[in-house]
Design goal:
By secondary structure, the protein is α+β, with helices and mostly antiparallel strands. The protein folds into 2 domains: 67 residues, Winged helix-like DNA-binding domain superfamily/Winged helix DNA-binding domain (Arc Repressor Mutant, subunit A); 168 residues, GAF domain (Beta-Lactamase, 2-Layer Sandwich), CATH 3.30.450.40. Helix content is 48%, strand content 18%. The chain contains 10 helices and 8 strands. The strands form 2 sheets. It has a 6-stranded antiparallel β-sheet with strand order 5-4-3-8-7-6. Strands 1-2 form a two-stranded antiparallel ribbon. Strand 7 and strand 8 form a beta hairpin. Helix 2 crosses helix 4. The radius of gyration is 23 Å and the shape is elongated. The two termini are 17 Å apart. The model has no long low-confidence stretch (mean pLDDT 90).
Length: 263
């Protein structure tokens, strides 16, 4: 509580009413499903008509908002231009590379990131350790969702309709450990949401163990699974705890790098 009060005091210390008002307006318009007039913005944001009017006129002059015939405003093309300039900065594969390398260094195992690609997951990047022997995963490979730690990371946050498409589709029993029962898979996905971790306990390939965590985009959508892939016989209980921690740190770092603001 004391920390929260201190943070609020710090924010108030550097508060600039006009800037605060501008940012409140931009955030509100980004969520609005219709153009908004000065009166509506004043009512919703508890700002004066005069402040909003002056802010909107300046933003309109610079292309950040556009007004319709009734003087209602919506965000303009200047924001789109800024967004496109930032797009490369928030590119998932590029942003995830350094985090994958650090995860690989800390775990000493092969690390990878996968994204949804239709009815499969797609491996978009892999980092291997500096060892005489290690597991090789080929970027560009496509894998099933259900027996795959990274696929489970994404499935756990899908809407019901999309999840049902996958669970009612092809769920091959890749190993004796692979789960193909949709009911039990749904139960496992609840655990993924609760813990923030997903596992492939020799479900895809005998002898291979994976630990994954979801990566979220700026809209809070699970857009990828990232984590470690290693030999099952090299992972003990204590080592697994450390791997789980490092995988979550990696996923959280990538999520922040592509714009996710955790609640």
């Amino acid at each position: 509580m004391a920390e929260k009060a201190a943070n609020q005091e710090k924010k108030d210390k550097y508060s600039v009413p006009a800037v605060d008002g501008l940012l409140d307006i931009v955030e509100f318009l980004s969520q609005a499903d219709h153009p908004c007039g000065v009166t509506e913005l004043s009512r919703e944001l508890q700002l004066t008509n005069n402040l909003i009017f002056r802010i909107m006129k300046k933003m309109e002059a610079r292309g950040y908002v556009v007004a319709d015939s009734s003087s209602a405003y919506e965000l303009g093309p200047a924001f789109f231009s800024l967004g496109m300039k930032l797009h490369a900065r928030f590119d998932l594969r590029r942003q995830s590379r350094a985090f994958l390398q650090e995860l690989c260094r800390r775990t000493g195992e092969t690390c990878q990131i996968q994204i949804p690609d239709g009815d499969r997951m797609l491996v978009i990047d892999v980092v291997t350790p500096q060892k005489d022997y290690y597991l090789t995963v080929v970027p560009g490979s496509r894998t099933y969702y259900h027996a795959n730690a990274y696929g489970k990371c994404v499935m756990a946050y899908m809407d019901d309709e999309r999840l049902e498409e996958i669970l009612s589709g092809d769920l091959p029993r890749l190993t004796e450990r692979a789960q193909t029962d949709p009911v039990k898979l749904r139960e496992e996905l609840v655990c993924v949401r609760e813990t923030g971790l997903a596992y492939d306990r020799e479900e895809y390939i005998n002898g291979i163990y994976c630990v994954g965590a979801p990566v979220f985009n700026v809209r809070g959508e699970a857009v990828a699974g990232v984590g470690m892939t290693g030999l099952a016989n090299r992972i003990n209980r204590q080592g697994l705890k450390e791997i789980e921690k490092e995988v979550k740190v990696c996923a959280e770092g990538i999520s922040r790098a592509i714009g996710y603001l955790s609640p």
